[in-house]
Amino acid sequence: MFHSIRNRISKGIDSLKKRFLQEDNGLLFSDVLHEENIQQIINEEVGEYRDRIYSPTTTLAAFVFQILNEDNSCQAAVVSKRSEQVARGEVPCSSATGGYCKARERLPENLILRLMRDTGQNLHTNSLDTWKWKGHNVILADGTTVSMPDTKENQEIFPQPDSQKPGLGFPIARLVGLISLSSGARLKCSYWSLSR
C-alpha cells in the first residue's frame, strides 16, 4: 500500500517538474514569483555585477533548470542555455561548464533563501480554500540531520558532537523547515550544529 502511495506521489512530482520545464523552459516560475520581484531580490542580495553570459538571473534560471531536469548535471544546464541562445538567433556560449559553475558559486546563499521564502509564502497565502484544513492555513515543522563531508571548513561550522571521539565520524548538521500543509511549499528553513 505504501509503495503505491509513494509511486503516485513520485509521479505527481515528476509531472509537476515536467510542467514547469515545458511551460517556463525551466527558468522562472512566473505564476508564483514575478520577474520584477526576482530582479529586486537579486539587486538587493548581489548588488552590482558585470554584464556577462552568466548574469545572476541567467545563472539562477539555469540552476533551477538543473535541479528540476531529470539529468541534474551542470552540462545539462549549459546545453539548455546554449539551446535557448540558438533559438533566439544569438551566438551560443561555450559548451564548457566552468563558467556556469563559477557563476553558480557566486550566487549568495541568502538570495536562494529569500527566493525560497518568498515563493513559499506566495504559494501558502494564495492556496485554494479547498486545500486548507478546515479553512485554516496550517504550517508544519519537520527536521532531520545530515552528515557533512569531513573538511576543515565543515568542522569549523559543524563541529563533531561530543558523543564522537575526535577525528572519528563526520560533522553533522541539523535541519528544520516550516512547510505549508495546503501547498507543500517550504516557508522557512534553518540549520545548525549538533554540538552547539
Cα distance, first to last residue? 41 Å
Give the C-alpha Rg.
20 Å
Q: Count structural domains.
A: 2
Number of strands: 3
Mean pLDDT: 80
Low-confidence segments: 24-28
What overall geometry do the principal axes of the alpha carbons give?
globular
Topology as H/E string? HHHHHHEHEE
Into which percent range does the helicity of residues fall? 40-55%
Strand content: 5-15%
What structural class should be given to the helix and strand makeup?
alpha+beta
- Please count the helical segments: 7
Brief rundown of the structure:
It is built from 7 helices and 3 strands.
Compile the SSE list and pairings.
Elements: H1 2-24, H2 35-46, H3 56-68, H4 74-87, H5 98-106, H6 109-125, E1 139-147, H7 152-157, E2 172-180, E3 186-193
Antiparallel strand pairs: 1-2, 2-3
Which short descriptors sum up this protein?
196 residues; alpha+beta; 2 domains; 3-stranded antiparallel sheet; 48% helix; globular
Task: Give an account of the 3D structure.
This protein is globular. The longest helix is centred in the N-terminal third of the chain and has 23 residues, at 2-24. The protein has helices at residues 2-24, 35-46, 56-68, 74-87, 98-106, 109-125, 152-157, and strands at 139-147, 172-180, 186-193. With 196 residues, the chain is of the alpha+beta class. The protein has two domains: 2-110, no CATH class; 127-193, no CATH class. Strands 1-2-3 form a three-stranded antiparallel beta sheet.
